[in-house]
């Protein structure tokens, strides 16, 4: 049973619960670096790729919920907030106007609270360098003007958070499962696949970073955004990372997704073999099989919401600083329902999650095995993370290559692997270390 909790900030004298916002145009930014100048606070919410995206500060309203209907409850809350809102937005493009950042638990049984957060100030930048600033308030008497928005932004930027240097006491510690225990879990998962109970199972594990001094989240995010520019660098309420996998993006009735399945570590790749990744990944029956399961799962689920859909006939090799992936991009035109409404990005998240890429196939069998074999609470790891605007546009990634800041000096990292019939426990363990690497390095640690 879900337990929703509305914590929109209580109204003071002169306030109403109705949200009010203004969006104004700002001078264009360099799309390669512009938003990085605003990632200066450890409490900022971020969504950045190749210099474009959103950085937000403060909090005007918050909604939290647990349970299997967490997506439905969140959508209903967002609709109620929009119904009574006053919005001044001359730009009218995706990401402007009223916006909420979100993070959702991976599992419907998780006690972790899924959340939507409406910030106070948002700086946005499109892929073309076009920039804007949004001010959001619940104060019925607050001034909505460009000057008020700039003043609010300046107040947040006036006290940037300091970075940190690695200390001799910084260390990585084990998580819930040891390396040996994880390998035994993988071996057990392979047995279930071989028995025909399912075709794929995704098993994750965690490790813990113990730091001498408080984590500098903004510094970590800037490092990730620069080094992993083809990924989506995210931060929502202590969930941080840089994901290569787009669950769904909706922009003016067009939906896009990026599916990854199939991984090759770059650490030991031969330097004199430019075709190595393509040959090893595209030539591997195991990797191609795992990828096809993931792409079929997404397209079959997305199909009822679309009027047309296209995807790569063959996966391409996505090169990241730590690994190569087999990847496929899917584009779909969304269809209106019988009432003439096009599904929002959050509605599609509800339909698509969990995907085969982070759970397995079939998902009900895989989900039960995950709870049996992993022995950990994933919380928001591998759950949807991103944003939605008043028009239903949004971008939702899968919270991978990331971590949860549990205390100022303790950060829990997560990584998982797709287990199919040909999986080898030692190889899957090594793959988790390659996926931990972005966060380990961004924290200034070493294995």
UniProtKB/TrEMBL annotation:
Class of the enzyme per the UniProt entry, highest EC level: isomerase
EC id: 5.4.4.2
Domain Chorismate-utilising enzyme C-terminal: 179-435
A UniProt-annotated Pfam family: Chorismate_bind
Keyword annotations: Isomerase
Gene3D superfamilies noted in UniProt: Anthranilate synthase (3.60.120.10)
Single GO MF annotation: isochorismate synthase activity
InterPro entries noted in UniProt: ADC_synthase, Chorismate_C, IsoChor_synthase
Protease keyword on record: no
Reactions this protein catalyses: chorismate = isochorismate
Family: Belongs to the isochorismate synthase family.
PANTHER family in the cross-refs: ISOCHORISMATE SYNTHASE ENTC
Name used for this protein in its record: isochorismate synthase
Organism of derivation: Arthrobacter pityocampae
Lineage: Bacteria, Bacillati, Actinomycetota, Actinomycetes, Micrococcales
């Amino acid at each position: 049973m879900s337990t929703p909790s509305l914590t929109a900030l209580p109204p003071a004298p002169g306030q109403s619960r109705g949200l009010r916002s203004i969006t104004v145009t700002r001078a264009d930014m360099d799309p390669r670096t512009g938003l990085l100048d605003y990632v200066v606070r450890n409490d900022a919410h971020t969504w950045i790729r190749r210099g474009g995206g959103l950085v937000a500060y403060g909090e005007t309203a918050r909604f939290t919920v647990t349970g299997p209907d967490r997506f439905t409850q969140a959508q209903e809350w967002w609709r109620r907030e929009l119904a009574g809102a006053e919005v001044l937005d001359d730009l009218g493009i995706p990401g402007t106007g009223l916006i909420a950042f979100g993070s959702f638990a991976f599992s419907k049984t998780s006690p972790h609270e899924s959340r939507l957060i409406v910030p106070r100030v948002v700086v946005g930048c499109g892929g073309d360098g076009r920039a804007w600033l949004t001010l959001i308030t619940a104060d019925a008497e607050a001034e909505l003007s460009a000057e008020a928005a700039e003043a609010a932004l300046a107040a947040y930027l006036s006290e940037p958070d300091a970075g940190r240097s690695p200390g001799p006491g910084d260390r990585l510690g084990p998580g819930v499962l040891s390396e040996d225990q994880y390998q035994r879990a993988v071996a057990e998962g392979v047995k279930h696949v071989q028995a025909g109970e399912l075709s794929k199972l995704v098993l994750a594990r965690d490790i813990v970073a113990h730091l001498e001094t408080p984590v500098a989240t903004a510094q970590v995010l800037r490092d990730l955004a620069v080094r992993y520019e083809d990924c989506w660098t995210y931060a929502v309420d202590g969930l941080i990372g840089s994901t290569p996998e787009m669950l769904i993006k909706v922009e003016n009735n067009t939906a896009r997704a990026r599916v990854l399945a199939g991984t090759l570590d770059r650490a030991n790749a031969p330097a004199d073999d430019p075709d190595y990744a393509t040959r090893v990944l595209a030539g591997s029956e195991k990797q191609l099989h795992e990828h096809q399961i993931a792409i079929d799962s997404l397209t079959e689920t997305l199909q009822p919401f679309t009027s047309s859909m296209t995807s790569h006939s063959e996966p391409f090799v996505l090169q990241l600083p730590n690994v190569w992936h087999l990847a496929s991009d899917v584009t779909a035109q969304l269809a209106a329902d019988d009432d003439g409404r096009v599904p929002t990005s959050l509605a599609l998240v509800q339909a698509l999650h969990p995907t085969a890429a982070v759970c397995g196939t079939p998902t009900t069998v895989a989900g039960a095995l995950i709870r049996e074999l992993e022995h950990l609470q994933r919380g928001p790891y591998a759950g949807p993370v991103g944003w939605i605007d008043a028009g239903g546009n949004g971008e939702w990634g899968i919270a991978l290559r990331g971590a949860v800041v549990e205390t100022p000096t303790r950060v829990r990292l997560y990584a998982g692997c797709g287990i199919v019939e040909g999986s080898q426990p030692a190889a899957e363990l090594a793959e988790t270390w390659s996926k931990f690497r972005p966060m380990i390095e961004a924290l200034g640690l070493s294995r």
